[in-house]
Amino acid sequence: MGDRPTLAGKSVLVLGGAGFIGSHLVDRLADEGPRRVSVVDNLFLGREENLATARERLADLRFHEQDATDEAALEAIVRTDETEVVFNLAVVPLPASLERPMWSVEHNVRLALVPCELLRAGAFETLIHVSSSEAYGSAAYVPMDEAHPPVPSTPYAASKLAGDQIVLSYQHTFGLDAAIIRPFNNFGPRQNAGSYAGIIPIVVNRATRGEPIEIYGDGEQTRDFVFVRDTADAAIAMYREPATRGRIVNVASGREVSVNELVRLLLEAIGADVPVRHVEPRPGDVRRHWASIDLARELIGYEPRTSLRDGLAETVAWYLGSMRPAVGR
């Protein structure tokens, strides 16, 4: 146990660290005693306000408003901040790939490639890359383990799969210290409620305004929702465990819920009674997601700690206390 990696005294960089999952990871890093935590975020979706809690706990928290696809700029930050460990959560989200597919794919591929190049050049020591369950596409069997065939159904999903393969290829070819965590559908406080918002903030917004909720298709498509702090815990556990290197590891709740059921639970948590109507299916929408988390249990002792119902209650309370009436930015 003594020779396992530790973040204590390390200089850590979080790409996309002002975003939803990234900011929760930055919060969690404060428990690890790092020497320094740096955040790189271009604020496409991220918000500096998401780092308010971390600033209170981290003596040396540095924020760089910068696009992580700029290799020279990122290398300068990595070297100036003496970075040793990088957690890569920088991403262009799925809905953007339905509007600007070419740009989204190119950007996401480069967001994976640039850190790999810097790692290969010795600019830092370890990369924990954050993937997406969308890389699998719809379930061919359930629960979906890491051997499930990847059949991405959107440009976003294809770009995330490509990024994973880039990381694995660099790890295998150059012997780099890198691992991939593949979360399923994250939810929790701070999830973007503006452009490209996910279903939970959209439902909260519409329900609190008394507007009808729109569900794509029949609503029987399923997802495996994981609370964001469970994902942050798992990302750090991935770093600590050398057996994860060169591996993709699912992180999820290990249970599936339909979109219809999710909306019902949300409206119950909000205490709202608004109409629910079904609209045309969204292009490329996966039909079924339900993760196997056996490998995460085996390698990093992972167990989800927050139930869907408890997580939704906390999330709704946060949105009701924090969200402005207008969802646009």
Report the mean per-residue pLDDT as an integer: 95
CATH topology of the domain at 11-187 and 227-252 and 290-305: Rossmann fold
Rg on CA atoms, Å: 19 Å
CATH superfamily of the domain at 11-187 and 227-252 and 290-305: NAD(P)-binding Rossmann-like Domain
Low-confidence sequence ranges: 325-329
Give short descriptive properties of this protein:
329 residues; alpha/beta; Rossmann fold; 7-stranded parallel beta sheet; two-stranded parallel ribbon; 11 helices; 13 strands; globular; disordered C terminus
Short account of what is shown:
This protein has eleven helices and 13 strands.
Structure description:
This protein is of the alpha/beta class and about 325 residues long. It has a domain at about 10-185 and about 225-250 and about 290-305: Rossmann fold (3-Layer(aba) Sandwich), CATH 3.40.50. The chain is about 40% helix and about 15% strand. It has 11 helices and 13 strands. It has helices at about 20-30, 50-55, 70-80, 95-100, 100-120, 155-175, 200-210, 230-240, 260-270, 295-300, 310-320; strands at about 10-15, 35-40, 60-65, 85-90, 125-130, 175-185, 185, 215, 220-225, 225, 250, 255-260, 275-280. The strands form 4 sheets. Strands 3-2-1-4-5-6-11 form a 7-stranded parallel beta sheet, with helices on both faces. Strands 7-10 form a two-stranded parallel ribbon. The chain is globular. The model is unreliable at about 325-329 (pLDDT under 50).
